[in-house]
Design goal:
Layout (H helix, E strand, L loop, with lengths): L1 H4 L2 E2 L5 E2 L5 E2 L4 H14 L10 H12 L6 H4 L6 H34 L8 H16 L11 H21 L5
Antiparallel strand pairs: 1-2, 2-3
């Protein structure tokens, strides 16, 4: 793909097309396009295992004579959904999407059905913020789909929201 081959990482930390147009994505869009092209090229359906993004980039570097500049310095796809697909294939992506839907559903119920913002609980507010922020962040980082501090925060936040919603459902509010 010529679009991928002509980008260069400059000392400014930005990608610049030959035309001189700045791209302030820190290379993420290029990584996403490359990953999707590699999925098609190598017909990846079941994933390649743990840290699939690193594996596929390393494999591509060894197999390809043309080394795309972006994977010379980056081995992380920077997208939780693509990472899930590369690691565990269609099943991994399906689970990632289902987890995201469960998280969004819990936030929706807490905010719109149970009116969480009228209950004056800082922990609940923090939980809402964490779930929304970390779900959104997974579009730009591996985030909650990689066992990290993000995963721990989203799990604690989800459990707090689940308890809040369940307590109201069962009329056990304080």
């Amino acid at each position: 793909n010529k679009d991928l081959e002509h980008k260069e990482f400059r000392s400014t930390g930005r990608y610049v097309l030959n035309s001189g147009v700045n791209r302030d994505t820190s290379g993420r869009i290029v990584l996403w396009k490359l990953s999707l092209n590699l999925i098609k090229q190598y017909k990846i359906i079941l994933g390649v295992g743990p840290q699939g993004d690193r594996q596929i980039f390393d494999f591509h570097k060894q197999k390809s004579k043309l080394i795309i500049k972006i994977i010379q310095w980056s081995t992380n796809v920077s997208n939780g959904y693509i990472y899930s697909y590369l690691s565990a294939g269609i099943l991994g992506l399906s689970i990632a999407l289902i987890v995201t839907m469960i998280l969004v559903k819990e936030v929706y119920i807490a905010v719109f059905t149970n009116k969480i913002f009228t209950k004056n609980s800082d922990l609940n507010y923090l939980s809402i913020f964490c779930v929304i922020f970390l779900c959104f962040r997974s579009l730009f980082e591996n985030g909650i789909f990689y066992f990290s501090i993000d995963f721990i925060f989203i799990l604690i936040s989800y459990l707090n929201l689940y308890k809040f919603n369940n307590d109201l459902k069962n009329n056990i509010t304080k």
